[in-house]
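Methods — Computational structure assignment.
A single polypeptide chain was analysed. Its primary sequence is given first, followed by the predicted tertiary structure written as structure tokens.
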Amino acid sequence: MSLQERQKLILRGVFKALGPGILYAGAAIGASHLVLSTQAGANYSYHFIWAVILINIFKYPFFEFSYRYTAATGKSMLEGYRKLGRWAIITYFLLSLVTAIVNFAAVTKVTADLATYLFQIHLSPFATSAGLLSLILVMLFVGKYAFLDRFMKVMIGILALFTITAFFFALSRGAQVEPGFVPPPLWDTAAITFLIALMGWMPTPIDCSVWPSLWALERNKQMRYSPSFREYHIDFHIGYIGSAVMALFFLGLGALVMYGTGETFSANGVVFSQQLVSLYTGSIGSWSHSVIAVIVLITMFSTAITVIDGYPRSLEGSLHQMFPSLKMFGSGLYFFWILLLSVAAILIIVFFTRNMRSLLEFATILSFLTAPVFAIINYKVVTSKFIPSGSQPKRWLKLLSWAGIGFLIAFSLIFLIS
């Protein structure tokens, strides 16, 4: 076989494997990027860029391990949890259930608020949230994984193009710092709380690391193809590195367009949406209003649809591992979790919060504080006897894992003490 033929064969295999990494990017490029990365730049300029870079590096192994386990065994990461011990799968299920309820509500709230502003919707929070969830549920119920896969590839491509375009336009104008502007302190309680929130969802919570494993198995069924480890890895890195780079673009947009303007973000989601779009267009130019509106909507809608698919899929898989007899219900358990979490999200939005910022902070901080637990479990799975020694992580990746676990624990303690 010639070199050209081998390259074509590799590209064909990568194309067949490509999908779970894009879905991961869609889940990651949402509130952590649009809201938190932008706010990091708007409030602190580039001072927290180190946090964005470090958290992406330190969380890297725990997402890679999910792909590694599936590539080595042909099974989902959740099976690795069960083989590790019932304590691991039960711990995952309970913690994931709590974070699922809160994160469902958070992404629904932010996305509904953005849609309310962009489409000038004059409805109650209940009606807007219920309408958004109903639209996504119809998409998932009718289109299932195949629709999700195709939809997200288009959305992420548009999002990347528009975001990078907006960034370079803002860069050409330069920062807009008002005379007499006083930078906020970097290490007071408010800054530390924000920093933990930023890292909690950057690039996405570690409990979501099992999702690409589950999506990969669905992709294999769709394509009737079992990718090699290399093909899995290429798909993973496209999604992971792509989302990390996009976080830097959003932070840069915040720093260039908003830092030093004297504006403060409202805790009301609809007002926040208006501020976000108007500040961008005010600096870049009124012509960009439609572009920015598309970026904002695609960013959060892509996160909403992947989160609303990912949590029910992982909770369903967890119950299958704990109680194999439940597989008799087929996809009924998946639909049960979607409906249950959707109802819980609407109840939280309507009765427990009208403050987008408080809900987001609670969701992101909860995700950060549970991160060390999921990180340790993922590490134990891929270094256990249930995965072939040849497929286990190299020494450098193990060292990075230990450093990542230490980093997550240290900052959790700093937050709790502060």
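Note: Residues 3-417 form a domain with the Amino acid/polyamine transporter I fold (CATH 1.20.1740.10).
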